[in-house]
Amino acid sequence: MRTVKLRGADGLELTADEWGSPSQPGVLLCHGAGQNRHAWKKSAEILANHGRFVVALDARGHGESDWSDEEKYDSEDIGRDILNALERFPSPPAIVGASMGGMASLAAQRMTARQLYSALVLVDISPHFDVDGARKIMAFMSGNPDGFATLEEAAEKISAYNPHRERPTNPSGLTRVLKQLPDGRWTWKWDPAYVTSKPGFNTQNKDVLAEHMERVSRIMSEGLKATTSPILLVRGGQSELVTASAVRSFLELVPEAEFIDVAGTGHMVAGDDNDAFTDA
Fold it and tell me: Could you say which DSSP state residue 62 is in?
């Protein structure tokens, strides 16, 4: 594995981890909101061992990639970064997009007539996502703006939000998603503006926020319709974002797509059970 710097849109620099050689069939891994490239480590290693050239990307405002001073964090903005990242591959790779990464993958395909991917895997994201589930995710992400006194405190908050996920005995692994400030407190490795910049968020205007989510849904639907490569939807069995009804609507929109339900996992499927996700 090697860490590289890639050119994103708007002059931003993006950080990525790579496995294998560009001469091998490619896979681009795009994480969800609040995560970073480390969420894919086990999956990336398995794919590389199966002869794939794997790139796990830190999205703008996440991990070690640049933050957007202009707070450009819409799916189309991250989609433009994906278009740039694809230059790393000599031929269209398969793309795996979790939540935010899936939204951006579809936004990127919507921007061009050429087929960007050899295959598209969407991880717990669908155009017909549950709005209340999305609000719950945003509420968790915007909570604790002052960070955490200790890693143990952060682990307690995460465990309360994800009670179905087994709490690790050693919270040191959280340093993948948390950074320590000079005063000793711990805060997330992502730009809070990813959430707070959303229309209607700061005013808690539900109508404006709902209108924004409807626009995101439309962009995803149009991206799906523009995709002719094989499509797979992987849903967390306990997901509050992609409901059974959302799956039915997804398959009506793209009936040629395949669908897998990963039991015992929630919205963050790969993080909840990486082995089960990779097997799927």
Answer: B
What's 27's DSSP letter?
Answer: E
What are the two backbone dihedrals, phi and then psi, of residue 115, each rounded to the nearest 5 degrees? -80, 120
What whole-number distance in Å separates Cα of residue 271 and Cα of residue 269?
A: 5
Collect all residues with Cβ–Cβ distance below 8 Å to 276 and sequence separation of at least 6: 262, 263, 264, 265, 269
Mean pLDDT by runs of 10 across the 280 residues of the chain is: 97 98 97 94 95 98 97 96 97 96 97 97 92 82 89 90 75 92 95 87 73 91 96 85 91 95 62 45
For the chain, give every domain's residue range: 2-130+216-279, 133-194
CATH of 2-130+216-279 among 1.10.760.10, 3.40.50.1820, 3.10.450.50, 3.10.450.350: 3.40.50.1820
Give me the pLDDT at residue 213, please: 85
- Whole-number Å distance between alpha carbons of 61 and 77: 11
